């Protein structure tokens, strides 16, 4: 008899659909769940069975995700690795009260036990990790609580706020402040997300928050970010720059660059 996980892994070439793209917000009458499993270089990993209200939904392979909608209220969610007997249907059913109009990102924990709750992550972290995954399509969902998603297109046009680390964005060369290679990649991905969330982009504000940083350094940073955005086809006339001094109530010692779009 072929082990459960072997059968699933053999389907891997046909197990994935489209690559993840940022999900739109849902209407207040629904709750949206994005469950994903980060890509793992280890071979032969058993699948992670995903359960919704005690019903089998799918088996996430390494680098796979699933997204679905539920009606607001109490639901049980879980994803368990190496669960060939489907014990997750009846064991470890953690109940959560899910409000409407929200999107939750849940990540598969490779070491998670049936006695442990799902791992929820902040949307910014979830979007960063799930963007490298593909939709899991090889299994037939038996989760009857899942309903079709209805997206709130108007909410998708609301303000978007990104907070970026100055330490990661920039590098110093011969006394000048320039974008690092990672900073260029981060800003390019930011623009892709902006275009998806804001088909009609009205304004982009670059806000730099610093603690005792020289004005010349701040201007160099603002210029570098602005140039990267314009090179990525954000019209220069809609870009503006703001500078803010971080006081004693600053939540972090690290300098920040914020990008606000609407």
Condensed summary:
The protein is 20% helix and 33% strand.
Record field, number of beta strands: 16
Name the strands of the widest sheet in spatial order.
1-10-5-2-8-9
Shape: elongated
Mean pLDDT: 84
Percent of residues in β-strands:
25-35%
Largest sheet: 6 strands, mixed
Class by SSE composition: alpha+beta
What is the share of helical residues? 10-25%
**What's the tally of helices?**
5
Straight-line N-to-C gap: 56 Å
Order of helices and strands: HEEEEEEEEEHEEHEEHEHEE
Radius of gyration of CA atoms, rounded to a whole number: 22 Å
Chain-wise SSE layout:
Blueprint: H1 4-10, E1 16-19, E2 31-36, E3 48-52, E4 55-60, E5 64-70, E6 73-81, E7 95-98, E8 102-107, E9 119-121, H2 123-130, E10 134-136, E11 160-165, H3 166-169, E12 170-173, E13 176-179, H4 181-197, E14 204-210, H5 215-231, E15 239-245, E16 256-261
